[in-house]
Design goal:
The protein contains 12 helices and 18 strands. By secondary structure, it is of the alpha+beta class. Helix 7 packs antiparallel against helix 8, helix 7 packs across helix 9 and helix 9 packs parallel to helix 10. The chain binds adenosine-5'-diphosphate. One of its GO terms (cellular component) is plasma membrane.
């Protein structure tokens, strides 16, 4: 169930991660798409500013021309009918050529053209009447005239700029210059731009798109149409609406013309009623948007991939580290296990060695004791022999009724011998290794019995404290006995140099037993020379001995120490205040055994 829960939460976490990543990508893509649009809008605005200034520069270049020409006296003369037309024509032709305008001409007060730069061409303006043109009426009213329209003579469109000709404060005629702005349109076309200029009525008069020329951006009113007709501004043109829809489906900055969609920017041309439109085809916009989005998408994808890759690598490294750590720990464990096995083996070997040493120690003791034992046994044997001889005599004399005490003596003697050999048997038997309740007092008694003849031979007195209770420890009888044998024999060895004939210097071994609720304390002291200060710290070290070679091997106390430790006890040695050494053994008592 918990596994299921964790899988579930892991799944929901990954899902949340995917959703967040998706959201971030969507936001990035969307904002970059919008960024692309706003960049395009900025470009459009910059282009509009540029094209407006080019248009204004083109117009400004020629604006001065009618003004200057209107001040020429030959022109003034010719317009008032005093001058020579030829001279005026020549003059206009030359100036026009220099300026690069389409035509430069002079109109008299009735609207007739009296002289023109194109006087010698089939499309000559000379003789034409332009009184219907607003630029004429405006200039004749004393203002500068501006007019864009299709030339009635040439059929070519252009911008007409006019200026009044004054003589003695009276307006006597008009000078007009016609500029053709085809080159501007061509430049737009060559640049692949979609640009157009609409006039005050919304008629598209300049455009990079030929099919839009003379179409209107909104339907003309009847009045407007009538005025345009009257001015013959766009003669021969139907001036149909362009079928233009601004902000289709409510989207700002969008323009739909026919089936085409554009992003558009518009700028009024200052000082006129014209508007300059800059259109960016939506195809291009979406292309640009798509490519920017695609780049962002790929970029985001790449970033996500990199992040995933890095994460994957991190995870891989972490798992590698983990498995390396695991392998290290495993190797460590194996080593530890090996070490434990080795230690156990060594421990077992040591125990074996210790057991063997105990045994060896016992055999050594046996060797030393054999003389005493032989002596002990020889006595009863001699006595038995005597008793047997006297029994034989009694039988011969027929005094068989006196045999009873004799046989009793013999049996008592054999019992004594049996007890000696029994002790030896007990002593030489090997430890079973099985722990059992051991009575300390009984063990001590066994040892004293065993060593009694040796103690006696060496003139040593053994004193025991009055301790009534039984001290039962959980141990191995044989090994506990070995402990006491080792200590008592060491005490005897230490006192060997004391002259036992000297009544003052008595050889004594004092055994003191005591017990608390859980612990037995056995103190075995002697009246020997004690232990040297430097020796005290080394006593229990294996092979430490102060005895002559052949006398000791230095294992007794180290074995003793090991045995006491095995039974959960402790042993220490110190010098008694009154002289002599004391060995104090403490052993844990079996629960509830102390009486
Ligand atoms: P060993 O008896 O073979 O020398 P032990 O380990 O039994 O080995 O004893 C080590 C040493 O401890 C002895 O050589 C002796 O110097 C010192 N020692 C042991 N018991 C006594 C004692 N009762 N009095 C003085 N020295 C002792």
């Amino acid at each position: 169930m918990f596994y299921w829960l964790s899988t579930y939460s892991r799944a929901s976490l990954s899902f949340a991660g995917i959703v967040i990543a998706g959201l971030v990508v969507w936001l990035a893509v969307n904002s970059t798409g919008n960024l692309a649009i706003s960049q395009l809008q900025q470009t459009a605005q910059a282009r509009l500013a540029l094209y407006e200034s080019t248009l204004r520069a083109a117009v400004d270049r020629y604006r001065y021309l009618p003004y200057v020409v209107a001040r020429n006296h030959e022109i003034v003369d010719v317009v008032t009918g005093n001058g020579t037309v030829d001279i005026a024509n020549q003059y206009l032709q030359k100036v026009n050529q220099r300026s690069g305008a389409a035509a430069l001409y002079v109109i008299d007060r009735s609207g007739n053209t009296v002289a023109a730069s194109n006087w010698n061409t089939p499309d000559s303006f000379v003789g034409q009447n332009y009184s219907f043109r607003p630029y004429f009426t405006e200039a004749f009213a004393g203002q500068e005239g501006f007019f864009y329209g299709i030339g009635v003579t040439t059929g070519r469109s252009g911008l007409f700029i006019s200026h009044p000709i004054a003589k003695s404060g009276e307006i006597v005629g008009v000078v007009a210059v016609k500029l053709e702005l085809d080159e501007l349109e061509r430049n737009w076309q060559d640049g692949g731009e979609t640009v157009f200029v609409s006039d005050a009525d919304g008629v598209i008069m300049l455009t990079s798109r030929g099919d839009w020329k003379y179409r209107t951006i909104r339907p003309l009113t009847d009045q407007e149409r009538e005025r345009i007709l009257r001015n013959r501004q766009y003669s021969g043109q139907e001036l149909l609406p362009l079928n233009m829809d601004e902000n289709p489906s409510g989207e700002d900055g969008l323009l739909e013309i026919g089936n085409e969609r554009f992003l558009f920017e518009v700028k009024p041309i200052s000082g006129s009623e014209w508007n300059l439109f800059y259109l960016t085809p939506m195809d291009y916009v979406s292309e640009r948007r798509t490519s920017v989005m695609l780049i962002t998408l790929i970029g985001s994808g790449l970033i996500i991939l990199i992040v995933l890759f890095l994460r994957e690598r991190e995870l891989k490294l972490a798992s590698q580290r983990k498995s390396m750590e695991f392998a290290r720990i495993q190797a460590l464990n194996t080593r530890l296990e090996q070490e434990i096995t080795e230690r156990r083996k060594t421990e077992a070997e040591l125990r074996g060695t210790q057991d063997e040493l105990v045994q060896a120690g016992k055999l050594a003791a046996l060797g030393q004791m054999s003389a005493a034992i032989a002596h002990e046994i020889n006595q009863p044997i001699a006595a038995i022999r005597t008793f047997c001889a006297s029994a034989k005599l009694m039988l011969e004399r027929g005094k068989s009724e006196n045999l009873g005490p004799n046989i009793e003596q013999i049996s008592a003697l054999t019992e004594r011998m049996g007890s000696i050999t029994g002790q030896l048997k007990t002593f030489s038997r090997k430890s079973t290794g099985v722990l059992e309740p051991v009575n300390i007092r009984a063990a001590l008694d066994n040892v004293i019995q065993l060593l009694s003849s040796q103690l006696h031979n060496e003139g040593c007195v053994l004193e025991q404290s009055d301790f009534a209770g039984d001290l039962i420890v959980h141990a191995d009888l044989v090994r506990i006995e070995q402990v006491f044998v080792n200590i008592i024999r060491n005490a005897l060895d230490a006192m060997a140099s004391i002259d036992d004939k000297d009544p003052k210097a008595k050889k004594r071994i004092i055994i003191d037993l005591s017990g608390t609720r859980d612990q037995a304390t056995i103190r075995i002291s002697d009246t020997g020379p004690g232990i040297g200060e430097e020796t005290l710290g080394l006593l229990f070290d294996p092979f430490f001995t102060t005895k002559d070679p052949g006398q000791g091997v230095g294992l007794g106390l180290s074995v003793t120490y090991g045995i006491v430790r095995d039974f959960g006890g402790s042993i220490r040695a110190y010098n008694r205040a009154g002289g002599g050494a004391c060995f104090e053994i403490q052993l844990p008592l079996m629960r509830g055994t102390q009486k």
